[in-house]
């Protein structure tokens, strides 16, 4: 009943209002509570406690100065056990376990794993009624610890208990400005961004295609990824490649085998440091070596330039080649440019079609 009422209230609210966001948050909490009730008979493992989507494990001291994310007090692991969410990393005292209000970041990732694509979408303190966006504590402007802290990711203000001035790369700043400077974010955003960093959900081609021209390494990465997708077609028909499991060289970035458009935030960070380009160049060289030198079966699927008629075997992923956009035939780049891009195969097809029409008439 409460869930249905909450849904109706959400429908009646205007879009992008603070009240609607709070209602959505409340709805998620109600659904999680309902799931906990439904799953009541199924007991979790004795060492796991489930609260608001968190899966808490009992821990003892691992390193000095652990802090509770509910009360911000020091966790003295030598004297007592504490709880750690194995999904999002939330830490708290035993006494604070049933007082937490933050939904597990992993639950949010599973329900709606997307990024905020506006840069610091600030709504202002007045819209938050001068209260913390998470714990709803009223801001008291007494000293630095009482001042509201802005989360650069979601544009909301938090108290010092919910915002520890943690630093994180902001996806919107990367996508729009190619800016990887870490910014201050609240604890909830930090945990969410950590879980999202390797999710391939950024379609850079649609969000900001100009970056490929402005960032040289990014353009090179795009070319290598397109080449790898072409090479994949050779490997799928090659018994040797399947036996060697060559495509597993990309197991850490499986989305590279599936498409050339989607990126993770970690991919973009690695582009900025040069790591991704180096990584792909090595894999590209390994794939190319198999197709062009090691495997006779793959070589048999190559092309001969119809302009110069040389015995040189050509492949579409080589930089020295050019592809006809109409029939996908492959030629030497120099030959193709010399003949001003007039594809002999397309010319033959045109003549055949013309002769066929003449016979019909």
UniProtKB/TrEMBL annotation:
Presence of the UniProt keyword Transit peptide in the record: no
Keywords: Metal-binding, Repeat, Zinc, Zinc-finger
InterPro entries: C1-like_sf, DEF8, DEF8_C1, PKC_DAG/PE, RH_dom
PROSITE patterns to which the protein is assigned, alphabetical: ZF_DAG_PE_1 (PS00479), ZF_DAG_PE_2 (PS50081)
Keyword Repressor: no
SMART domains named among the record's database cross-references: C1, DUF4206
GO molecular function: zinc ion binding
Every Phorbol-ester/DAG-type domain range: 53-104
Pfam assignment, any one: RH_dom
Record family assignment: Belongs to the DEF8 family.
The protein's name: Phorbol-ester/DAG-type domain-containing protein
């Amino acid at each position: 009943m409460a869930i249905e009422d909450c849904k109706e209230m959400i429908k009646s609210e205007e879009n992008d209002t603070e009240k609607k966001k709070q209602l959505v948050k409340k709805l998620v909490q109600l659904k999680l509570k309902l799931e906990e009730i439904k799953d009541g008979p199924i007991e979790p493992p004795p060492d796991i406690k489930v609260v608001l989507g968190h899966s808490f494990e009992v821990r003892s001291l691992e390193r000095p100065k652990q802090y509770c994310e509910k009360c911000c007090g020091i966790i003295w692991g030598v004297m007592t056990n504490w709880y750690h969410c194995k999904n999002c990393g939330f830490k708290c005292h035993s006494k604070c376990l049933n007082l937490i209000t933050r939904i597990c970041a992993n639950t949010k990732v599973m329900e709606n794993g997307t990024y905020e694509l506006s840069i610091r979408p600030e709504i202002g303190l007045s819209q938050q009624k001068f209260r913390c966006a998470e714990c709803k504590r009223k801001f008291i402007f007494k000293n630095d610890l009482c001042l509201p802290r802005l989360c650069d990711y979601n544009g909301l203000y938090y108290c010092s208990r919910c915002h520890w001035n943690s630093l994180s790369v902001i996806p919107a700043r990367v996508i729009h400005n190619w800016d990887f400077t870490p910014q201050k974010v609240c604890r909830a955003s930090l945990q969410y961004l950590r879980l999202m960093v390797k999710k391939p959900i950024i379609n850079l081609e649609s969000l900001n295609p100009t970056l490929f021209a402005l960032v040289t390494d990014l353009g090179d990465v795009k070319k290598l990824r397109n080449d790898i997708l072409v090479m994949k077609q050779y490997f799928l028909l090659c018994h040797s490649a399947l036996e060697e499991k060559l495509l597993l060289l990309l197991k850490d970035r499986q989305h590279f085998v599936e498409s050339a458009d989607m990126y993770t935030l970690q991919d973009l960070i690695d582009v900025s440091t040069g790591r991704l380009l180096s990584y792909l160049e090595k894999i590209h060289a390994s794939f190319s070596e198999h197709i062009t030198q090691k495997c006779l079966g793959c070589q048999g699927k190559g092309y001969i330039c119809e302009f110069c008629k040389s015995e040189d075997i050509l492949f579409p992923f080589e930089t020295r080649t050019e592809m006809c956009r109409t029939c996908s035939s492959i030629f030497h780049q120099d030959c193709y440019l010399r003949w001003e891009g007039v594809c002999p195969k397309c010319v033959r097809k045109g003549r055949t079609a013309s002769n066929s029409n003449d016979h019909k008439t």
